[in-house]
Amino acid sequence: MNLAAPEAVWQAPTDVERDLYAAKTRGDWAAYFDVLAGTDLYHAMSRAQADAKPGWLHYNAAYWGPRPGSPVSLAFVTEGMLPAPAPDPVFFEVDLGKLVQDWPQDDEWLAINPGTPCEAFFPATAAHRQTWRWHADRISSTRRNQLRTLWVGGPLHGNVAHGLACGALLCVNNASLWNAMGWHGTGYVRERRRLEEWWEITSREGWQQAQEELLKGRMSSSVWGLVLGIRGTLARDFGGAVEVDHWRQVTSRVIRHRATEDSETEAQVAGAQRLIGRILRYEARFRADGLLPEGGFVRSVEAWDYGRASKMARWGLGARYCDLAEAEAAVLRAGAVSRINYRSWEEFSAGYILGRCLHFDEEEFGDWYGEMLNAHRILTTDPNSPWLNIPFRR
User: Fold this and answer.
1) pLDDT at 20 (0 to 100)
2) Global pTM?
3) What is the dihedral angle through the alpha carbons of 97, 102, 106, 112, rounded to the nearest 10 degrees?
4) Rounded to 5 degrees, what angle do the CA atoms 271, 275, 281 make?
5) In percent, how much of the chain has pLDDT > 90?
6) pLDDT tens digits for range 66-75
7) Mean pLDDT score of the chain, rounded to an integer?
8) Is the peptide bond before 89 cis (omega within 30 degrees of 0)?
9) By three-state DSSP, how is residue 92 classified?
């Protein structure tokens, strides 16, 4: 007796394509549009167009439907369906609500993920776009505090995955795919704008310099490294906990010994003493919230640089300041230096979060801290977390 082979089940790249496919299979188009309203959509455009008018959206690259005589459509893809970044074309990001406002012509249809099992084609007249608006008004496309994985096309194990996981705190906070090496992020123009606004990077050379500084742990304050390094040395020398007064005294002596201008020495000493107080208060909160074990302390904040280096590699790729091979090499280096300087994901996380808080939080224990605490808890408890599935050290 011949038995037909069971039909293969399609493996969706991300949760978005999975939900689109499920809605399409049920014929539940209202649910399909709910998914679209809650995610980002990407449309291809020439790099020359993007560079000429960075604030403009160019709707082109028309797609002909799957059957002869099908209407011309504008093709949009969801995040899991994006191709590997290439020099040209680039993609811009848009949401369903924005499409309602900017749709170019009533006679063009909307194509979602054409050529895939979750594809769909919709008329886009003014009346149909009001349906889109109804879904967009109900559901926000802004996601936060989610662990999201690229199940097809993204590394899940190995050195590249480890390097990508070093940036997972920020990925979870922004609900971006933690293991998407082929990064498009918020689209070419917005990725460039991000680097300019937050990092003052406007060129390939600027990206290379920032990437190197992060990978060498030099972007964070050298004073932080000095103060924490002194305590770490004392802990190793004395084989245990370091008395706070001893730490303070040795720090003052080291700074005075290194000082070259007497007029600034006492100001530097006072600043280091204030920093020690801030670190102690943060560590007490970390222990109370489970970021550190009882009696634990942070040995260094270089993890903040290494984690940002993992992300910088991808931001540079999204902005086309590097290619995929360069970005992957930087991610591998971020993972390697993290393994050298830390012993576990938990230790790495505490160092990253302390660095972020010292830079941004000003002891407010506000969003700069709370966002990372939430991300840490997700990454240390979710069964799909890379931190639970990728050994920190081999």
Assistant:
1) 98
2) 0.93
3) -50
4) 150
5) 80
6) 666 667 789 9
7) 92
8) yes
9) strand
Say if strands 109-112 and 72-76 run parallel, antiparallel, or are unpaired.
parallel
Please calculate the CA angle 79-84-87 and round it to the nearest 5 degrees: 120
**Residue 228's closest CA among 276, 284, 288?**
276
Q: Which two tokens stand for residue 259?
A: 């000082």
Q: Give how far Cα 26 sits from Cα of 19, 20, 37, 247, 313, Å.
A: 11, 10, 18, 65, 40
Integer distance in angstroms from the first to the last C-alpha of the chain? 50
CB–CB of 167/178 below 8 Å?
yes
CA–CA gap between residue 7 and residue 14 (Å, rounded): 21
Burial label for 225, CB within 10 Å (0-12, 13-18, 19+), is middle
C-beta of residue 94 within 8 angstroms of C-beta of residue 59 = no
Cα 269 vs. chain centroid, distance in angstroms? 37
DSSP string, 362-375: TT--SHHHHHHHHH
Tell me the residue type at 157: H
Of residues 174, 215, 185, the one with CA closest to residue 195: 185
Residue 366 identity: G
Tokens encoding 157: 């194990």
